[in-house]
Amino acid sequence: KFTPRIFSGIQPSGGLTLGNYLGALKRFVEKQDEGIETIYCLVDLHAITVWQDPERLRNQTREAAAGFIAAGIDPKRSILFNQSQVPGHAQLAWIFNCVARMGWMGRMTQWKDKTAGKDAEKASLGLFAYPSLMAADILLYHATHVPVGEDQKQHLELTRDIAIKFNHDYKVDFFPVTEPVIEGAATRVMSLRDGSKKMSKSDPSDASRINLTDDADTIAQKFRKARTDAEPLPETVAGLKDRPEARNLVNIYAALADTSAEKVVADFAGQGFGAFKPALADLAVAKLAPIADEMKRLMADPAEIDRILGDGAERANAIAEPILNRTYDIVGM
Ligand code: ADP
Ligand code: NA
After folding, report:
1. Residue 195, in any domain of the structure
2. pTM of this structure
3. Is 241 assigned a catalytic role?
4. Is 228 helix (H, G, I), strand (E, B) or coil?
């Protein structure tokens, strides 16, 4: 009943990281190249769930768009746009706020993590309701598949719950029950400073992440200083079991090299991190430097980026509008 259609997004709340690249962007490009209809969104409405400097948000949205294009998203074959330019996202999110239950939101681990040790009463209402907006982002296009990193798995389950409850409450079969697509060697890239935290653009420590715009020296230095244990690399991946930092670096290598962790471990078995880290840094620089260069070139012409995003928003809206209108009709509006 539903034609295969991919939707996914990234927040323009900071520069793109290696985690965003391996867990999301690189997958987005693969899906586009498989010839499936692909819609990619810079989710600026999500970004403002925590305060953003307006001028910085505007620039980061352009920079993220440049990152997508530099990584291989072709704005002619994929739809690339920012969320706030298609009004249906916020409109459908309101409907879903009335379908979803408070308890569902309260159980989201990301909500718990982001308010841990803080006064949750002082978090924005938007941060609490964020997963409902995310469901709207996806379902506004009747997207059937969403490529994401592992951290988004629970939000995808909630999206499915909202679709199922809407269909049930209104006795329709209108929204698809969307499948998450979590694949590859690095679905959860960890912080370089703390193997128990994911690498994130919102981590206050810049040393915890590789940014797509980092230069070669910075990348080499961050990997050199990455926390590891003193053991050499094991013979098999089973030997990485209780070594989260080592496993993380191996997974990053494997994802960048388009190979498996098994293969990387076999190639480096018995070598220490003194040898592995420079090899990893060289590989990362070889893969990321061309992206950074292309981003710089694109950023020199912000008007062209705005034009691309404007065109994407028009095409996105052409899909979204009839689905929103039909939703209003189902609800009795
Ligand atoms: P961030 O946490 O960097 O702000 P977003 O929330 O904007 O990232 O997520 C954008 C996409 O990048 C999502 O699909 C998310 O799953 C993926 N992603 C983010 N961080 C990582 C990571 N450390 N490893 C793998 N994928 C990630
Ligand atoms: Na996130």
Report:
1. no
2. 0.96
3. no
4. coil
- Classify the complex by whether its ipTM is higher than 0.90, answering yes or no: yes
Query: Is 44's C-beta closer than 6 angstroms to any atom of ligand 1?
Result: no
Co-location of 71 and 39 in the same domain: yes
The answer to whether residue 113 sits within a structural domain is yes
pLDDT of the residue at 145: 98
Query: Is residue 175 a part of any domain in this protein?
Result: yes
- Regarding the beta carbon of 124 and ligand 1, being less than 6 Å apart is answered no
Same domain for 52 and 137: yes
Distance 114 CA to ligand 2 centre (A): 10
What CATH number does the domain containing 156 carry? 3.40.50.620
> Which string of b and e fits 42-62 if b means at least 16 CB within 10 Å?
bbbbbbbbeebeeeebbebbb
Residue type, 151: D
Same-domain status, 51 and 177: yes
Residues 157 and 263 in one domain: no
208 lines ligand 1 (CB under 6 A): no
Give residue-wise pLDDT tens across range 9-59. 999 998 999 999 999 999 999 999 998 999 999 999 999 999 999 999 999
Burial class (CB in 10 A: 0-12, 13-18, 19+), 24: buried
Q: What pLDDT does residue 93 have?
A: 98
Helix %, strand %, coil % for the chain, to 5?
60, 10, 35
To test ligand 1's pocket by mutation, which of 20, 182, 196 has the most ligand atoms within 8 angstroms of CB? 20
Exactly one of 114, 153, 165, 197 is catalytic; which is it?
114
Ligand 1 atom 9: the closest Cα is on which residue?
10
Task: Based on the residue annotation, tell me whether 197 is a catalytic residue of this protein.
Answer: no
Structural domain range at position 272:
206-296
Number of independent structural domains in the chain: 2
**Which residues, including other chains, have CB under 8 Å from residue 299's CB and lie 6 or more apart?**
62, 63, 66, 305
Q: What digits encode the pLDDT tens for the residues 46-97?
A: 999 999 999 999 999 999 999 999 999 999 999 999 999 999 999 999 999 9
CATH number at residue 276: 1.10.240.10
* pLDDT, tens only, 111-145: 999 899 899 999 999 999 999 999 999 999 999 99
